[in-house]
Design goal:
4% strand, mainly alpha, globular, Rossmann fold, single chain, five-stranded parallel sheet, 534 residues, 26 helices, 5 strands
């Protein structure tokens, strides 16, 4: 047996043994086995990444983080591990290392087209759009009929505002035997459908042929809703939306009691103002744009991004990544009860340093950097403690409009409350109550902005936001031509490039009959959550 063959079998034995330990919860044994593999293969990357993975599963976040980063920086990466490396760096919110690895890796031509496309998608999500487009173009050039390559290139093109290129890739992919459902969903979003130009019949045919593939049908039902809504076929649109939401609810469940415990824990932990301990003169100054999804955060970020000293970072996990590192705890979501309980042990200077340093490859020497992860409204207490110099702008919106805007979207993940009217009303009441709490505990730290006011009086409201953030305001901040060239890496990429419009106000009204349970649930949920209830 050759030496190469021996080491291949040896590595496979380690993989199987570690996987078995993890499967049966023997995490200490898994860590020990991974450590032995690292000793036996001191120059290889895979054992170190595997050890980091099991250390993370065992609850050792910092050890796993430091091990993975050090190994990726210093060890040669085989082509077969390139995607795993990028996913690992993304898990640890190591955006600069992601950029450095992807830009310096010399073996992309040995990586499968689908994996290169997935890497491109990860890079576009952190704002590294030029590099993402290079990888996406190469992936499609090498495998022109690969669905993953085409769909990811289309997604990146749509983020960049190149909708014609995105449309071409999606139609090409739909015509192949792979015919991915996501391609139909993205295509429906690119244009406002008309009686003369739509895909309704094709979508209905696809649904009939979808069989038992529930995820495929989710995409198709939401696509059909979007197109029928454009055509103002309200009855049929609602039927499609209801079917899509029912399918998602079959695989996602919203835990009312668990969410109540989390919000209560946040209010208890941050029941009084904390003096910010971190430095207040660190650059850049963060501007957090928070609220529920679909509240207008992308529009406001686009306005702020018109200033040359502002970098629009979009939505990232940089803040929760900094908190995970400071707490030495791998919070599986943006925030959970355990992370909240660890607040007294978290060093605010560590949070500030990690948050402010991560992403330099993208924002350079910008004086202000926006962060518009909507769910960061949970973390305002942490922000005030670690980043007292930050500006926090909260986008509010009419509750029914806001909840309906969430109901009609198929989110990638983490929005488990969005597919049932009762769940939406419950979450909205908790969110609104928490925002009132932040205003009581930290008066003046958060600026509330009503979406309706922003689109009805964009000049007056944008001026108010700019003054709050300490930014120069100019009338052209509301002109789409000033932000049309930037990458917008959210579901709002298409509509956020148009003129400021009031068309989304009252979007729920054509569906009023079906949304009566939502309106009643909103009344009940808000009345059950008194503003004075602490």
């Amino acid at each position: 047996m050759s030496q190469t063959r021996y080491f291949c079998l040896n590595a496979e034995r380690y993989r199987r043994r570690i996987e078995s330990h993890v499967t049966y919860g023997r995490l200490d044994a898994a860590v020990a086995t991974a450590a032995l593999w690292c000793e036996r293969s001191p120059l290889d990357l895979e054992p170190e990444l595997t050890r980091a993975r099991v250390e993370l599963a065992a609850g050792h976040y910092r050890a796993a983080h430091d091990r993975a980063i050090a190994a990726i920086r210093t060890r040669d990466c085989p082509a077969a591990l390139a995607l795993e490396v990028v996913n690992c760096l993304r898990l640890f919110v190591a955006h600069d290392d992601m950029f450095d690895f992807a830009s310096g890796f010399a073996r992309w031509n040995e990586v499968t087209s689908a994996d290169r496309a997935r890497v491109a998608g990860a890079l576009s999500a952190i704002g590294a759009l030029p590099l993402a487009r290079v990888l996406a173009e190469a992936a499609v050039a090498d495998a022109p009929d690969d669905a993953t390559a085409r769909v990811n290139r289309a997604l990146i093109s749509s983020y960049a505002g190149d909708f014609a290129a995105a449309r071409s890739d999606l139609e090409h992919t739909i015509a192949t035997p792979q015919n991915p459902a996501m391609a139909h969903w993205l295509l429906a979003r690119l244009d406002r459908q008309t009686q003369d130009s739509n895909h309704v019949q094709r979508l209905r045919r696809q649904l009939l042929a979808a069989g038992d593939d529930q995820r495929y049908k989710e995409y198709l039902h939401f696509s059909l809703f979007k197109e029928l809504d454009d055509l103002q076929d309200i009855d049929a649109a609602w039927a499609a939306l209801a079917s899509g939401c029912a399918l998602v609810r079959n695989r996602l469940s919203y835990d009312h009691a668990g969410r109540e415990r989390l919000f209560a824990a946040l209010k208890r932990q941050f029941s009084q103002a904390h003096q910010g301990d971190a430095t207040t003169d660190a650059a850049p100054i963060p501007i957090f744009i928070v609220g529920m999804h679909r509240s207008g955060t992308t529009l406001l970020e686009s306005m702020l991004a018109t200033r040359p000293d502002v970098h629009a970072y979009g939505e990232s996990q940089r803040l929760t990544g900094a908190l995970r590192f400071a707490a030495d705890y791998h919070c599986p979501t943006l925030v959970d009860e355990r992370l909240v309980s660890l607040f007294p042990l978290i060093d605010p200077a560590t949070v500030a340093a990690r948050f402010l340093l991560e992403g330099r490859r993208m924002f350079g020497n910008a004086r202000f950097v926006t962060e518009k992860m909507p769910g960061n409204f949970h973390l305002i207490g942490f922000i005030r403690h670690a980043l007292p110099q930050a500006k926090v702008v909260h986008l509010r919106r009419d509750p029914t409009d806001l909840c309906f805007a969430n109901l009609r979207e198929l989110f990638a993940d983490g929005v488990d409350y969005s597919y049932a009217q009762e769940d939406l009303a419950h979450f909205h009441a908790l969110y609104a109550d928490l925002m009132r709490h932040w205003q009581r505990v930290y008066p003046g730290f958060v600026l509330d902005v009503d979406y309706e006011a922003l689109v009805l009086d964009p000049i007056g409201e944008s001026r108010r936001v700019f003054e709050f953030c300490g930014l120069d305001w100019q009338p052209d901040v509301i002109e789409p031509s000033r932000w049309s060239a930037r990458s917008i890496n959210t579901l709002s990429s298409v509509q956020a490039r148009g003129k400021v419009s009031t068309s989304s106000i009252g979007r729920w009204k054509p569906y009023a009959t079906w949304l009566e349970p939502l309106r009643e649930a909103l009344k009940d949920a808000h009345s059950a959550t008194s503003p004075d209830d602490e």
